[in-house]
Design brief:
By secondary structure, the protein is mostly helical. Helix content is 72%, strand content 1%. It has a domain at 82-235 and 268-335. Strands 1-2 form a two-stranded antiparallel sheet.
Length: 404
């Protein structure tokens, strides 16, 4: 017997156990969806513009490597663009994990942005505590805006999709109205651009080492806050009693209540925490120093920020797993960053909507893959049963032909 046999057998058992896990099936389903989505996009590009398809496909697959200043600058810009999307993706994913559909991440993001901007612009007396206070203010704003739909759901069983999408509009018009009020307009809004003024220097996110690693990209410490938030949510949901209670209420509210869990409290907290995460995203967005340390601003347009809705496909592609949200955000940002160079690829280029189509197809197939992975054991059992039945029929046929 070879000395390697126990190691090989142990490896086989580990691989077999890994393949059977729900997480592996989810990852496999997401990769399958990504593959099909990219194939669909490539075929579409060949149909739309066959003469430039080769160049377009190359640009699409290169992602941040298309940056004319080099891959390092491109990677920094990708991470910078991905950071606020991680927060809205985590907000939606957390609600999904607890059985709720938070479609109001845009409103929570905007309200969190508003609270953080007020502290960042008017809170100069806070000194060195201005930044952390602005961050906490943004989290509070998002918590408040998520808690209201949670209260309606918990107390009166009003569906969270209805209330949260309504509060997107309420949050938008409320924030714009307050910014334009007589008290705030002259202090926080630039009348020439109709945008908020930049927050104070002390309130901006620190660059830390990222300005040296990825110069002139605007990447700051908020990327670490985003990754840390994902790790904390994973720990809370998977390793704590509180997280299990929230998930159990999502699986079966009545069974959880029978087991002694306060279902109403869990629903309320789920939506409030989801809103708090989105609000944190709004805070780090408005407190970002930018590539030249000039600060960020918010345009007072009556248009809902799309970043909250963008968090939905991110969460779906990640199967609502907090760590998976990081990877799905980076992938979607990788595809999206190809949008501009794709329009100038070849002689006539491609419309930027192709990127949106590819992402939509990936999400469609990820939902299909999720159904397949959830029913994997049932499909496998049916396949084995069908295979055994075919063998049995073949055997009976051979016996019958032999008798004849």
């Amino acid at each position: 017997m070879s000395k390697l046999s126990p190691i090989v057998d142990s490896t086989k058992r580990y691989v077999k156990k890994l393949v059977a896990t729900k997480g592996f099936k989810s990852v496999l389903g997401s990769l399958f969806a990504i593959f099909l989505g990219l194939i669909f996009g490539i075929v579409l590009m060949i149909i739309v513009n066959p003469s430039d398809a080769g160049v377009g496909i190359s640009v699409l697959l290169k992602g941040f490597f298309n940056n004319p200043f080099g891959a390092t600058r491109g990677l920094g810009q990708l991470l910078y663009r991905a950071t606020p999307l991680i927060f809205t993706g985590l907000a939606v994913a957390f609600a999904f994990k607890t059985g709720l559909f938070n479609i109001g991440a845009s409103g929570q993001f905007t309200v969190g942005l508003f609270f953080a901007a007020l502290v960042g612009i008017l809170g100069d007396s806070l000194g060195s505590f201005q930044w952390i206070t602005a961050i906490l203010a943004g989290m509070f704003g998002g918590f408040l805006w998520g808690a209201i739909p949670g209260l309606f759901k918990a107390k009166w069983n009003v569906h969270e999709v209805i209330t949260s999408i309504m509060f997107n509009y309420i949050g938008l018009y409320l924030v714009n109205g307050l910014f334009n009020s007589n008290f705030l307009k002259t202090k926080v809004v630039d009348g020439y651009t109709n945008r908020t003024v930049a927050v104070d220097q002390a309130a901006r996110n620190p660059y830390w080492i990222f300005d040296d690693l990825f110069p002139k990209t605007g990447l700051d410490i908020s990327i670490l806050i985003a990754i840390g938030t994902a790790l904390i949510l994973f720990f809370v949901l998977q390793k704590t009693v509180f997280g299990r209670e929230l998930k159990n209420v999502g699986f079966n509210r009545h069974a959880a209540k029978y087991a002694g869990v306060n279902a109403k409290r869990s629903i309320f907290l789920s939506m409030a925490i989801s809103g708090m995460i989105a609000g944190l995203g709004g805070a780090v967005f408005i407190l970002a120093p930018g590539s030249r340390n000039l600060g960020a601003s918010y345009a007072l347009d009556n248009n809902i920020l799309s970043i909250g809705f963008d968090g939905i496909p991110v969460a779906l592609l990640a199967s609502s797993h907090p760590i998976g949200v990081l990877f799905s955000t980076f992938f979607i940002s990788f595809i999206q960053i190809s949008s501009d160079p794709l329009q100038t690829a070849g002689q006539s280029g491609f419309v930027s909507e192709i990127i949106n189509i590819i992402i939509a197809v990936i999400i469609y197939f990820s939902a299909f893959a999720l159904i397949m992975t959830q029913n994997y054991d049932r499909i496998k059992a049916r396949f084995i049963k069908s295979k055994s039945e075919r063998k049995e029929r073949k055997k009976q046929k051979e016996i019958k032909e032999g008798d004849e």
